[in-house]
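Risk register update: the risk of archive-format incompatibility is retired. Evidence:
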Amino acid sequence: MELNNVKVEWHSVLEPEIQHNEKQHPNLPVREMYRWVIDDLNSNRMRSRVIMSADKAIGYAFLYPATGFSDRNFASFGFLDPAAANRERSILLLDWAIAECTKDGRKLLFNEPFNAGSTFHECMDERGIRKLHRVEMALYPKQFGEQNKDIPSVYSIVPSMSVDPGALVKALYLAFRDEDESILISDNPEERKRMQENALSGKLFGPVIPEATFAVLHNGMIVAGITVVINEGSPLISDFFVIPDHQNHGIGTYLLQIAIKALSRYPEIKLWTDQRSIAHEFYIHRGFRETGRSETMYYLRPGKQQEQ
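Archived output:
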């Protein structure tokens, strides 16, 4: 039996998932992060679907608009017992979420389903849902593998704080639009600009380190950039890009070189990147190593079912 927005006690339903995430993320206030979700679910302010068996919830999904994004919904999927995650139930939950996002004209995004198992992932593959697996990487500045590189004189380097945030994020969007990591960037130009302004003001990831944050210009247009902030006490490269038409000219290596030189007083520099991307190999060849921390996100754009 399955019902939409069924009246259940969501604290009990989500307690196993909460305990699991508390073990996975001991430094985060996981229970507090779930509090508003449970309140909205118990009040039927959040869309949900629950699979029942013998008057008990055995599987669930819920969906909510992403804060600050007009182009996406976040979902959560789970089963109280992994043995309950069969094909029929997995498809029921997935197809419900996909239909709701299609109706909204929004992308569907979600993290690792709880207790879902391989059958659920097979159903995700059939629906054309893609996986973005990002890993944290770290570098000791003295181990950086490139020195004394330069770029053609047709390019100029300027502080990112001196350029228009809208132009900067437009270039960032162009650089990533064909990559899986493009899912992290809003389709709405005004939202992208607002997020870039928040990043450069330190509101998004942490205080910017101006001496390591640059944009690259070509004929007055931004074609590359790097932004470094202080996050969790260490420098974090929060944005780093070169638009496709200007790649393979040494711009990325040069930007990384001058940023790391400016950060030489720090013991460690970190960044996050898609493990399957060319950028991952770029960082490996320049001395970055994976720290063991990672995050996985699954996504489906509107109308992309069955597209691989």
